[in-house]
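Need a sequence for this fold. Nothing fancy.
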């Protein structure tokens, strides 16, 4: 399963990485407080909780929902989407795309993580997580028995992609102030 979790460094060029970081982490970019890291529409079979789970509020910005642009800023993420499809060597549609901003939280000690979840139980869907900034707060991957199988540390300009039915969770930053990612959900076209 770990070979299905692929990290691609510098998915977009350095200049565009800097541009995206400056736009999305500016004090003028609109983000919205969400009461937890999961949406209300998750299937109970697609989440689990254990002794290391801590769910906290996060800030988000939705770019695309249900294949439809939901933000005037959505054009900023289409270059990354194009590069993901080229890297995967598939023709795909963008089902969902959102910015997740997580700040330091006092209950995190390096062993804790947000609620482990699958973005979809559909094994054909693909998730991509683009790291906007150099920070701490790994993305942790789990097998179906809830064992940790891989960790990916955020690195600005990098992307990790994987099947959307793989359990994963983020961690709160401890050393840095903010962890910022853009989450993509792709549907391969037949």
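Here you go.
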């Amino acid at each position: 399963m770990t070979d299905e979790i692929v990290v691609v460094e510098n998915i977009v060029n350095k200049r565009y990485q800097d541009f995206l970081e400056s736009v999305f982490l500016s004090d003028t970019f609109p983000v919205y407080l969400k009461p937890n890291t999961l949406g209300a529409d998750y299937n109970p079979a697609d989440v689990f909780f254990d002794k290391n789970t801590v769910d906290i509020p996060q800030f988000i910005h939705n770019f695309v929902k249900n294949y439809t642009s939901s933000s005037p800023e959505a054009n900023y993420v289409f270059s990354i989407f194009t590069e993901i499809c080229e890297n995967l060597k598939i023709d795909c549609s963008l089902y969902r795309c959102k910015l997740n901003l997580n700040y330091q939280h006092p209950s995190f000690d390096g062993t804790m993580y947000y609620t482990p979840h699958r973005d979809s139980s559909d094994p054909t869907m693909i998730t991509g997580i683009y790291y906007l900034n150099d920070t701490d707060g790994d993305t942790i991957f789990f097998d179906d028995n809830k064992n940790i199988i891989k960790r990916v540390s955020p690195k600005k300009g990098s992307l990790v992609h994987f099947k959307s039915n793989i359990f994963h969770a983020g961690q709160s930053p401890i050393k840095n102030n903010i962890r910022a990612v853009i989450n993509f959900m792709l549907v391969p076209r037949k």
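For context: The domain at 2-188 is CATH 2.60.120.620 (Jelly Rolls).
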